[in-house]
Structures are given as C-alpha cells and as structure tokens.
Design goal:
By secondary structure, the protein is an alpha/beta fold. It folds into two domains: 187 residues, Glycogen Phosphorylase B (Rossmann fold, 3-Layer(aba) Sandwich); 177 residues, Rossmann fold, CATH 3.40.50. Helices cover 42% and strands 14% of the residues. It starts with a strand and ends with a helix.
C-alpha cells in the first residue's frame, strides 16, 4: 500500500482550512486518494507555489520514482487565469507539466468542472472585453486537453454535447461524492427519521437567484397549510433577492443564514430536501453537490424532471422527480402527507446507494480507469 503513488494536479489556490464552493471537491478527492492507500503528491496553489512543486516532482520522476497516474481538476477560471490578478504569468507551467508526464507514459485524467461559459447567462454576467478574453482561454484549455488527456471526466456525460470539441480520448462521468466519515452519522440520523403526523417539513440549502430561482417552491408551500419550508442562503443574497419571494412568506416559511455544523439541526428536523429548480438547459447536466449532502443525512429529495439531478433521484428511487408545475408539485406533497410511510422507503434506498457514491468510490474509479490503460 505504501508504495502506491499518484500525482494530483489542481492549478488554482485552495484554502484548505476553510474550503468553500468549488474548493470542497478537490479537498475531498485528495483525502479520498489517501484513504484508498495512495501517497498523493499534490500540486496546487498560485503559480509560484505550483512551479516549485512541479520542479520537485519532475526531478523525482527523472530519478526513477514511479507514479500510477496523474489526476487533475479544472478551475472555474481558465487554467492560465487563476492568479490573484487573473494575468497569465505562467503560460507554459501547467500544460508543460502535463506534457512532461505524458511523454513519460503517465496516464492523465482530468475532471472538467463546468461549461457555464458557453451559456447566455455567462454573457449577461461578464462584461464584453473580459468575456472575450476569458472565452479564448477557456477554448485554449480544451485544445490542450485534447492533446494531453487520456480521460476527461464530467459531472455527467450529458455535459459532453455542450463542449465545443471532439475529444480523442475517453469521456466518462465523475459526479460529486459523499464524505465517508459523514456516513457514520447515518445511524444517529436514522433515529430522527421517524414518520410523524405533523406538517411536511422541507429544507433547502443554496442559492436563490438566477439559475437557483426557487420561487415555485415558495408559491406551493404558501398555498399548502400543512407544509413548512426552511431556506438557508447567504444573507447578502437574501437581501438582494427577497423582493422576489416576500409576497409568499408566512409563518410556515423560514429564512436562515447558517453554514457547517449549524445546519445539522435543520437536516434532522426536516422530512425532505429540495432540488426543485426550473429545468433550464444548463440543468440538463449540472450535478449539484447538495444532492449528495442531502443523501448523507438520509433525506429524500424532491427534484425536477428534465434535470440531471432529477434523473439521478429517479434512477436510484431516493425521492420524487416531478414536473416543474405548481399543481403537480402540490399533488406530490399531498401524496407524501397522506402516505408518510413512503418516506421510509426512500430512506432505505438512500442507505443502499451511499457506499457506491463516496469520494473513495470516485477515487477508486479513477485509479481503475487510468491504471488499466
């Protein structure tokens, strides 16, 4: 076990003490490779930090150290623009290192995080000069990936049709995972998942604007007297967006601004969690990290048909995948209220799928894929 080595290449800065947003995934995947027995040589940080680590690893390779594979993840920014000032100070560093590894027959897999920049919503949120520059660098990333990668991983394979290239290697999916140490909590959580006769309690954690608009959920809960909703979002986002939602607020709808362990009581108290979003084109392949967090707490999920998340929920029978329609959503909620034992069946299915969806399971897949080439 101690002789297994891999390289993890993350061409951006990570705050390991307080990772947030897109930083959580790479932190989890580093831990997962270590948990399956690998000595992981990690390249991350701003350019000067990465340069130092790359030179050290290149020397170790030339000195005869063997690495089973290299696993990389893209940034939300183009690779060459991940410095603090977004200036391409190290234009040849990262792709030069991938080329170095390829020439030494080290197989390379990369998780391509997002294709947000290909959608109109990106054009609307980024000013023209900056947008044009960024897109040219995003396209350069794809050009280099096609030259250097053996496997490109996506949140779901459905995303591939939106990427403007014909990849020469293997295309596969590597969705988010579940923190295995969190699964140990499931017996505690299970004790709180007793079927009761109170109101149906729904919990949502995440954004509430743009592609995260949850107005329909507010409308439905407002009209159903035996349904409660708790929404956790950033305080500044609520202040900005509350006009969209305020007309639906009543005593059964609560807005909170919590994070981390402070969320646990809300997960314990709720019956189901929500991923109910409008099925816009971007949702065809977006796979929310929250889906897997909800599963960790053994909470059935209500999702929207026509989304990748909804497809996952339906395939694994871990919740309800419903049309984005007010009356149909009401029908589902009334169905649950009238037959609350259905919650236990969904919880049982979540328990069955947990171990197949840990970060360690994702790491084992990468290892299997890249060492078999």
């Amino acid at each position: 076990m101690g002789n297994k080595r891999c390289i993890i290449h993350l061409p951006f800065h990570i705050d390991f003490e307080h990772p947030s947003g897109s930083q959580i995934r790479p932190v989890r995947i580093i831990d997962a490779f270590k948990n399956i027995g690998y000595k992981a040589e990690v390249i991350t940080g701003y350019g000067d930090e990465r340069k130092k680590r790359i030179r050290e690893i290149e020397k170790s390779i030339d000195d005869g150290i063997k690495y089973d594979f290299l696993y990389s993840e893209s940034s939300t920014q183009p690779t060459l623009l991940t410095e603090k000032n977004h200036f391409p100070k190290y234009p040849f560093l990262d792709f030069g290192f991938l080329k170095f590894c390829k020439q030494r027959n080290i197989k390379i897999g990369l998780f391509y995080r997002d294709i947000y920049w290909r959608f109109p919503i990106y054009d609307q949120s980024v000013k023209t000069p900056k947008r044009q520059i960024a897109k040219s660098f995003y396209n350069y990333d794809l050009y280099k990936y096609n030259q250097l990668l053996d496997v490109i991983y996506l949140p779901t394979k459905l995303m591939y049709e939106y990427i403007p290239f014909n990849f020469k290697g293997i295309v596969d999916e590597l969705p988010p995972g579940i923190n295995s140490c969190e699964i140990e909590k499931k017996n505690i959580e299970k004790n709180t998942n007793e079927v009761n006769t109170n109101n149906l309690k729904i919990f949502y954690v995440g954004g509430i604007s743009s592609i995260y608009n949850i107005k329909l959920l507010f409308e439905v809960v407002n009209e159903l007297s035996n349904v409660e909703l708790t929404v956790c979002c950033r305080k500044e986002e609520w202040e900005k967006e509350k006009e969209v939602y305020e007309s639906f607020i009543n005593s059964r709808i609560k807005i909170i601004h919590k994070f981390g362990k402070d969320l646990e009581p809300y997960f314990r108290e709720c019956d189901i969690c929500s991923l109910l979003f409008e099925p816009i084109e971007y949702r065809n392949f977006a796979m929310p990290v929250k889906l897997f967090e909800y599963m960790t707490y053994l909470k059935p999920i209500i999702s929207t048909k026509g989304t990748a998340a909804g497809e996952f929920v339906e395939k694994n029978d871990i919740g309800w995948n419903v049309e984005y329609d007010k009356e149909k959503l009401k029908d589902i909620m009334n169905l649950i209220l009238n037959n609350r034992s259905t919650l236990l069946g969904k919880i049982y299915n979540i328990e069955k799928t947990l171990n197949y969806n840990t970060w360690e399971a994702r790491a084992l897949k990468v290892k299997s894929d890249l060492t078999s080439l």
